[in-house]
Amino acid sequence: MAGITHVLETILYCTDLREAHRFYADVLGLRAVSDMSELGMGFRLSPTSVLLLFQPDESSKPGREVPSHGVRGPGHVGFAIEGGTLDAWRTRLRGAGVATEQASTWKTGARA
To answer: Which of 26, 43, 73, 92 would be 30's cystine partner, CB 3.0–4.6 Å?
Structure first.
């Protein structure tokens, strides 16, 4: 049996879909691959990976075509960036009004 090759999709939940679309499309520059609906929207991350943003009140309704799901509270997704571009990304995010909550450097030298 072959092992897992990659993450197919990641789902985050947000109540303000318009603001989420602005952030992921305009600030991060992700390409939308679905139109925004009451349920949410999708962004292509790579040829084999999609980020889905769902409105939890809609995604948790019973009787949908796919299983109902939804969560409340904070979530987390980490995006990889090219080496040497962290400072440029921080500048871009700060210019879009996104504050850095915490900067970290791990024992390996990796920074976030």
So the answer is: 43
At residue 41, the pLDDT reads: 93
Question: Strands across the sheet with 40-46, in order?
Answer: 9-13, 49-54, 40-46, 31-32
**Which alpha helices (H) appear in the chain, and where do they start and end?**
17-21, 56-59, 86-95
CA 80, 89, 100, 22: dihedral to nearest 10 degrees?
A: -90
Check: pTM over 0.85? Answer yes or no. Answer: no
Q: What is the pLDDT of residue 112?
A: 79
Sequence-distant (≥ 6) Cβ neighbours of residue 59 within 8 angstroms: 13, 39, 40, 68, 69, 70
- Dihedral of CA atoms 102, 18, 78, 70 in degrees, nearest 10, equals 110
Neighbours of 20 (CB within 10 A): 20
User: For residue 93, which of 49, 29, 32 has the smallest C-alpha distance?
Assistant: 29
Q: Amino acid letter at 35?
A: D
> What parts of the chain have a pLDDT lower than 70?
1-4
